[in-house]
Q: What sequence folds into this?
């Protein structure tokens, strides 16, 4: 089936190439016959963390449709999401389970950063896009040499602590997701102002108003990739890192020399340990750091 789809795509490209030499009328006719953009069929129902979205409402259905269309037809980005999810979700999922946070929150990391160590214009950093003060409040180390917002495991643990604290406040996981985007106090203020306690009944700003719908759309596409035209082979997906750890509790004068001991370049060492922000580590307090080293 996949081979037939590849051949169909190839045939389309060949056809479009051939009609470049047609006159304008023939070109228009061939184009209309060959090129189609389809409306995306909706799932019958969808939920976030076992909390259903009221898809029977026009405002909710249209907001979800917008995000489903954007992420279906922004094919390059969504295909990268699929590839990266195969690499990073196996790390995130057991941490969410350990902290009793619903698995759907892995999609929150996906829409926050695209599962990259991004830096936003507001200086939110890492896979979970944590601001410095928030990250420190939830136990992460940030200084000139170390920034654990770039550490997938530790930043996921910090995000989980935030989620659980927010759930204690709101008693609703959908509101927890919204609070992650706009802040707990900001969301609580709008709930009081509007006298509503349901995300789908709240009028919020553009970003937070789209936020949960983006999560729902990405979840739907990644759960049912074939339904939305995404075709790939297992070998196309990014592989989870295969690493072991070296404990370091002293200063490191040069990470270039440190990497060479393991037949790595400085760049490779930083690829597996992006939370190391300098070319050295003073480690004045003799903290124990686990540095990832790739097998082979």
A:
């Amino acid at each position: 089936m996949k081979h037939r789809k590849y051949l169909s795509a190839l045939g389309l490209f060949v056809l479009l190439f051939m009609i470049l030499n047609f006159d304008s009328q023939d070109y228009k006719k061939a184009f209309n016959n060959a090129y189609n953009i389809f409306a995306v069929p909706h799932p019958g129902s969808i939920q976030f963390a076992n909390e259903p979205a009221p898809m029977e409402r026009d405002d909710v259905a249209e907001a979800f449709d917008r995000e489903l269309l954007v992420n279906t037809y922004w094919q390059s980005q969504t295909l990268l999401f699929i590839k990266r999810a195969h690499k990073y979700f196996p790390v995130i999922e057991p941490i969410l389970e350990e902290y009793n946070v619903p698995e759907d929150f892995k999609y929150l990391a996906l829409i926050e950063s695209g599962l990259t160590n991004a830096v936003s214009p507001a200086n939110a950093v890492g896979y979970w896009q944590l601001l410095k003060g928030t990250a420190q409040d939830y136990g992460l180390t940030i200084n000139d040499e170390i920034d654990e917002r770039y550490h997938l495991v530790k930043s996921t643990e910090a995000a989980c602590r935030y989620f659980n604290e927010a759930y204690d406040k709101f008693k609703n996981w959908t509101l927890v997701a919204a609070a992650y985007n706009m802040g707990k106090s900001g969301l609580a203020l709008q709930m009081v102002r509007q006298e509503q306690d349901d995300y789908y009944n709240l009028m919020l700003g553009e970003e937070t108003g789209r936020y949960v719908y983006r999560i729902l759309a990405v979840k739907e596409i990644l759960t049912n990739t074939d339904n939305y035209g995404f075709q790939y082979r297992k070998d196309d997906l990014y592989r989870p890192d295969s690493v072991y750890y070296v404990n370091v509790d002293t200063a490191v004068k040069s990470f270039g020399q440190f990497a060479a001991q393991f037949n790595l370049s400085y760049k490779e060492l930083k690829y597996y340990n992006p939370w190391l922000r300098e070319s050295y580590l003073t480690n004045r307090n003799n903290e124990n750091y686990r540095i990832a080293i790739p097998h082979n």
In short: Confidence is low (pLDDT under 50) at residues 1-7. Residues 243-294 form one domain.
